[in-house]
Amino acid sequence: MVRDRIALIAYRDNSCDPKKCTMKKLERFGMLRLVNRIPQIPKSTLLLDPTAGVVLSPADRAWVQSVTALDCSWEVLDTANLGPWKGRRALPFLVAANPVNFGKPFTLTSVEAIAATLYILGEEEQAKTILAKFHWGLNFLALNAEPLAEYAAARDSAEVLKIQSEYIG
Question: Is residue 110 annotated as involved in ligand binding?
Answer without folding.
Answer: yes
